[in-house]
Design goal:
alpha+beta, Immunoglobulin-like, 34 strands, disordered N terminus
Length: 720
Amino acid sequence: MIRSNNRAKNRLIIAMFMVILLINFIHTSYGQEVKWFKVGSLQTWFREDGCEPEVGRTFLQADQQDGYRWPAQFHGADKEVDNMAAKALWIATTNYTDAAQYGGVTYPQKVVHVGPRGWDLNREFMPQVFKLIGRFEHPKVYVDGIEASELKYDDILDEIDPNLVCDRMIYNVVNTSIGITEKRKIMTWAQQNHDNYFITEYIFTNTGNVDPDEEIEKPDQTLENVYFTFQYRYSVSREGADGTGLNSPRWGINAMLGKRGEAKASDSKGSFVYAGDYEDWLNGNAAADSLRCQFSWAGRHSGASYDLIGYPDVVGQTGRLQGPQYIGVVTLHADKSATDKTDDPKQPRTSSYEQSDDPPTRPNDQFDPKRMSEEWKWIARGHRLPRHAELVGDGFPDQLEGTPGGFSNLNSYGPYTLGPGDSIRIVMAEAVNGLDRELCKSIGKDWIDENSPYTLPDGSTTTDRDQFKNAWVFTGQDSLFKSFSRARKIFTNDYQLPSTPPPPDYFEVTSGGDRITLSWSKTSESWPGFAGYKLYRAVGKYDTTYQQIFACGGGTDHPDLVNEFDDITATRGKAYYYYITSFDDGTNNPGTMGNPAGVLESSLFWTRTIEPAFLKREAGIEPYENLRIVPNPYNIRARDFQYPGEPDKLMFLNIPGECTIRIYTERGDLIKTIIHDDGSGDESWNLNTEYGQVVVSGVYIAIIEPKQGDPITKKFVVIR
């Protein structure tokens, strides 16, 4: 009996040990750190292991489209403007012998990976350094004493460097099991002409360090035929894809893929005619491609009942274009060799498109020679012509090659020879651009209302509504190329970019009885060329369009600088959101490096409030004869006009400063209890029950119970 108990205890100890190992494995495999860029109009996350694979932030397949949000001002729970499904970084070489700790096996082709699906933080891409560096701390932003900036969650700096060439930089160091150490610097700007792209500088060094510790396991290795391969599974856009009612657009099955800079005139064949590649352009052929880039946009879908270009809103019948984005990557520099650091115009050597669900995209295995041989075919394929978009034409990308998951862009830089200590530098920029929100609204409205004739971008007209819509969406390609050109200009100028004045380092919004008061610090006023401040306001939600409500300083109607403003135009019952910017006198921006000359203004994201401010009325006075429920009746047909931005909202007005509101059905079922204790005379309700169910049509009874005194009973009607 004693021996049996001991065996049971041993089994329990072993089981507990295995659980601890499993928990540790899960933590090390899935618990990697993520950092955000959230100071410009393009916002996304980055991982510590050197790349951003599919569902690599939340590990939820529901978040397959996650990242590269643009325009980020409009990202919210009901309109998620994500444009990325997956990325990958592979490093490959030939005739490679693993270090003894990995088995000492020699492989004809060795490939190590992070993404597009799967990763190994312990034995493949092993993080060493991961820091977010800023030029200055983000401002402190408060609404009614509550910290109210989104940056408090996602802009946690590890270092401050006032001499930083950009506004935010992520510095990342990763060892790999192949003995190449990756260093990447990812840079972003909040300046309004350069805030929709990131520039990433990679330096890949043959350190011989194949694991996480500092010891060098392979100090004398020389690597031959080294390639650095990047995959981009772009997917425009999450909001638009969700609005189609189809599932497959979420993973980019209808993505159109284009590229430039890789095709010589001699590559022309049949109807596919090319003027020359990037090298030809550098040599004076003005008609040749001036950029080395790959990009994507949302195309048609064979399963849709209407033309999906731009993803017009047909569900809400607004027509607004929900997927006008163009997203892509441009090569800015790639070393010719480990000893020649000049730019090689023939890089990348491979620019291809591959099916996003083909076997090489599945969780990879660096110890499977057959698998790595298949991956090598992609890596060293060369330039794939004709281009994806050329083959699809006016057809359906989801039908090309019978793909179940669409296609991904792929490019490879190489082949390089890396001796001990040798390195290769590669610099690229990723950008998103397209039609602005107001054009998306107006073009979409004309499309859905069939307001023919339609005006095309060149000023001509058509009666074909799809031709009209698509022509405007396609202007996004030129917008993307302009962003690429701006990135290239500041790169070639050593990142010397005119900076905006910094925002005030403190911004406070205070709700009041007859006004909402805004106040801010004077820290911006010492900036050379500083001119003044501008205040903006939105109603109902913060992820929307803002209107300027006040400006002071040079060139404004209020030339004297102030640090406080009372918003007396607010209306009771509505939620208000604000941000403040600093602007200069234009002398810092003469119009170089792709900047339109003139005034520079700090980014809205520095100070935008995400907590609402309200115009609060004084508490009601007994006998509460003025107590009202607004609107009454609540009619769903008027929901967009009652409280803009807050469609399912009911207000209780002139109530006691402290009370409990209990809401009952007409037959006496209690469905909601609201505790009101802020001392004001206002309280709101979102028409949801205690269990999150939306109330149905009917008559309801509200019993307002003051902290002292008799209850007040009111009836109201909901019409759905």
